Amino acid sequence: xxxxxxxAMQLMAQGNDGVxxxxxxxxxxxxxxxxxxxxxxxxxxxxxxxxxxxxxxNLLITKPGKRLAVVNAALQLEEKGPAMNYIPKSxxxxxxxxxxxxxxxxxxxxxxxxxxxxxxxxxxxxxxxFVMYGVMYVNAEGKMPELKNDPNIPPARQEDKLAxxxxxxxxHAHQQEMPKxxxxxxxxxxxxxxxxxxxxxxxxxAVSLPxxxxxxxxxxxxxxxxxxxxxxxxxxxxxxxxxxxxxxxIGTIFYRDKTxxxxxxxxxxxxxxxxxxxxxxxxxxPEFHYTLNGIDVYELILPKEDGKGLVRKxxxxxxxxxxxxxxxxxxxxxxxxxxxxxxxxEKLRLNPQQAREFTLIMTxxxxxxxxxx
Length: 373
Fold this sequence. Notes:
Structural class: mainly beta
Oligomer: single chain
Number of strands: 25
Largest sheet: 6 strands, antiparallel
Number of domains: 2
Strand order of the largest sheet: 17-18-19-20-25-22
Strand content: 35-45%
Radius of gyration: 24 Å
């Protein structure tokens, strides 16, 4: 306690001398006006955050690499969230500003970490944390990655000349008009949101593909839920913090998985135990990694070149038993072409060698015969 008291007295005594001052505001569309800045290790920092938006926001600074963990922890607060300002009790949270209503301002004064690194800051209000974030770089040289290659800021801000603190007019940055679209920034498929979706667990991932195709992949149960053609998703209700809100699909669903579970290992009638391991980007497309009864599975979903369906590429490198893929052939207006294996009624049967890498091409009848291109 004495240490923290003396540290606070030191900050007060120094006043503005030698203090790095940072001002953050909110741009329309769930974006901080400044998405990155630098401070020196051990520097005294005063961060002022003004909510210049029409909805509530908070601000948390986390340990390096812990932004998503903190965002997910905030979501798990559920009904306790409002009382806790959606700030989870976690050692990954270093400093925080509680929920601010529109036009409110609050400041943080702290001593920058002594360890160099990229320290994310993020709004963890429900639905915001996956798109509303930035990064505080701590290093003695004041260096930051080249903007277009910075992995710690939202992808669409990598071409934003207004992104860096101290290099532009902040008032102008705040007044900049954002695209009036279903997303807070310009987007080019493929890209994804971790977001609440209908008919899926809270761990849903919505992925936008080229050819105006999209799909919902459920990380909670490790399966493709459904796919649609048209636009992507409207997240307005989520971003405004509406209780029990879900993303609204823009388009028409052409495929929905109605099986009890599509992939089986060994016994074609036994539902496997699944565990989500994350994903990596393969030329910007997410390849999902999960396990079935402890066996690693990798699934990459691509658009058909003609825009009439999906191409699903599976890798099960350590397959040592037969693998089965179940489909609702009688119930879906979708045809399946498999690169390996044989169909046994409504299940594709693959031996261990075939299961190590195979592709399923799913073509939608409604899309093939649709007059819309």
